[in-house]
Amino acid sequence: MPNNEKIRFVQFLHPGGEHKPDRGRYISWNRGKHKRKFIKQDGYYLDENNRMMKDKIVFWGEWEPQSVVAGEGKIDNPVHHGPKYIYEPYYDLDEAKKKDGKRSDSIDCKGGLLQNTDPFVFGDRFLYGICKQCRKTGPTKLTCLEKGAIIVFGSCKEQRFVVDTIFVVGDYIDYTCTEDGLKTN
Fold first, then answer.
1. Could you read off the pLDDT of 110-130 as tens digits, one per residue?
2. What are the residue ranges spanned by the domains of the chain?
3. Which residues does 12 contact at the CB level (< 8 Å), separation at least 6?
């Protein structure tokens, strides 16, 4: 692709399957390959009269920090390729810093990386901030997608692409990753 061409469409595949609990009804912050969860949380949707409504919603997505299996636990009779668990996400950095039952004041970035959540669909806006944006040679064109570009996140099931999340880019913030966190440029 010539350097002056802008990317208008991006398709991402989740590299892993569905997460499974690792501590009874709980799942620790993922330190392995990215996976999906069927997530239950407060969210907004449009009703049949096109009114914005707030309620509990469920959706396939990526949430790599901790979560707990909602309700009764495992889904007894899941549909084909459907979820086996419904998760309610939570975030506890102190808990995440424990590895093998021991507390660490730092997060091991080599061999025990706490995975990021990308896309991040929690809060007042959707964010895509890390995945495939940097290489050893520097930033990629994905760091500055223009307004209107489309990003589609999903999974491959039986040689078909199954959509989880679609973003239409509204804007971007230029930033640099440092050991101390993110810094805007």
1. 445 678 888 888 888 888 888
2. 9-184
3. 131, 132, 151, 152, 153, 154
